[in-house]
Every structure is written in structure tokens, then in C-alpha cells.
Amino acid sequence: MIKQEIEKLNKEFLDKSPKEIICYVLDRFGTSRTILASSLSIEDQVLTEIFAKNSANPRIFFIDTGRHFQNTYDLMEETSSRYGFKYEVYAPSNEQLERIVSQYGPNMFYESVELRKKCCEVRKVEPLKRVLATADVWVCGLRREQSVTRSNIELFEWDHAHDMLKINPLAYWTEEQVWEYIRSKNIPYNSLYNKDFRSIGCQPCTRAVRKGEDIRSGRWWWEDPDKKECGLHVSNVVKEG
Ligand code: SF4
């Protein structure tokens, strides 16, 4: 897909709802080649509800890093049974995981940014590459206001890292809009949000945030804000063409 077409889609869908965007994508690219990334966040729960209601066989994947909160696994089961689908689960390679944990220890992420990124690379990025190789389009719950690293994301983007189309239907939504949608549809959400968590990832790298703090300040809280990505979302520019 070329830059001009992506720009056209971004203009065309600027005022459209996430449901309209997702239905367009499912219709144009097909349900078997369009996949939703879910970490069970509130944003991903909104998109899961839309996917499940608008596709007979939704493809929704979860990367099981092995370090998630029990609450996340509980929500996964609840969501799966509520909407009647099974998550596609991807896990780190045994060999790579055994090697890094043997070499650097089970808490390597606290040692340095490099070791934290190495852990994310093995537990998240490598499984992500495998799942994305099975699709042409991936859909994510990223929002512009989440962090400085996401302030320029578009509804439609070319993901250079994976050479495929990436869709962010909630790019312009606020956190309040997400909660309104969750409440209006009675969508299940991670109970940790009731304990001041506002962005939830792996248990050792996530903590609750205080009032007034940035949404993602509870993720890798020991690092600078501009380094707080795990490598899953690395390219937000459209393809030249
Ligand atoms: Fe490892 Fe933490 Fe990254 Fe999870 S978030 S993969 S535990 S460094």
C-alpha cells in the first residue's frame, strides 16, 4: 500500500467510529488475514468486543510472556467465554528464554535498559514476528494521548518493521471515551484498574500510578519516558511510494 492511499484512508476515516474502521478493514482484507493484538487492556477490550460482534471467526492474539498478572489470565478466560472465541496464544521460544534467564537471572529487566529490552525482545518481539507473519493487517489499541512515544500515531499506518498495514482505530480516543464505551456495553476489564493501575503489562514491570501522573508512568517506571516502549510498536510512518 502506498503513502498516498494511506493518507487518503486517514482523511476518509478521520470522523468514523472504531466499528466503522474495523468493519471496513475486515471486509477489505478478510477476517483470516486481519488480526487484533490484545494485551487485555481496556482499549483492547473495546476492540475485542467490536471484532467479536462483527466477525464469525475473529482472529485475536495474546502474547503470553509468562510474566503477566493472574488478573490478566482470569480476564482472558472471562472474555473468551463471553464472546465465544479462542485467543491465538504465542509464547517465547524455550531456547531463547532459557538462555537469557540462565545468563542474566529472572529479574534482568531491573539491571539496565539494554537487559530490559533484551527481555522484551525474547518474551514479546520475537513471538510478535511469528504471529504477524500469518496476517496482512494488524489492529492495535494504541491512543495518541497515552505517551510521548504515541502522540503522532495515525488511524492507518505502514509498519515498516513488519512490512504490513497497521490500524489504530482508537488513535484519537481519550481514556474517558474508552471507559464510557466499556461501561455502556458492560465489557469485562482487568480488576487492577480498580486499584489505580492505568496501563497493564507484565507484573514485574507494572505498578499503580498516583493521581496526576502520566498514564504509562507505571510501566518500566525506572526508565525515561521516551524509552518506554517494548519494541512491539516501533514504526509509525507511512510507506513512501
Ligand atoms: Fe520482560 Fe518486563 Fe518486557 Fe515483560 S515487560 S517482557 S517482564 S522486560
From TrEMBL:
EC numbers for this chain: 1.8.4.10
UniProt keyword annotations, A-Z: Cytoplasm, Iron, Iron-sulfur, Metal-binding, Oxidoreductase
Subcellular localization(s) per the UniProt record: Cytoplasm
Every Phosphoadenosine phosphosulphate reductase domain range: 35-208
Predominant location: cytoplasm
Keyword Glycoprotein carried by entry: no
GO molecular function terms noted in the UniProt entry: 4 iron, 4 sulfur cluster binding; adenylyl-sulfate reductase (thioredoxin) activity; metal ion binding; phosphoadenylyl-sulfate reductase (thioredoxin) activity
Cofactors demanded by this protein: [4Fe-4S] cluster
Single Gene Ontology BP annotation: sulfate assimilation, phosphoadenylyl sulfate reduction by phosphoadenylyl-sulfate reductase (thioredoxin)
InterPro entries to which the protein is assigned, alphabetical: APS_reductase, PAPS/APS_Rdtase, PAPS_reduct_dom, Rossmann-like_a/b/a_fold
Family: Belongs to the PAPS reductase family. CysH subfamily.
NCBIfam families linked: APS_reductase, cysH, PRK02090.1
Name the record gives this protein: Adenosine 5'-phosphosulfate reductase
Organism in which the protein naturally occurs: Acetivibrio clariflavus (strain DSM 19732 / NBRC 101661 / EBR45)
Lineage: Bacteria, Bacillati, Bacillota, Clostridia, Eubacteriales
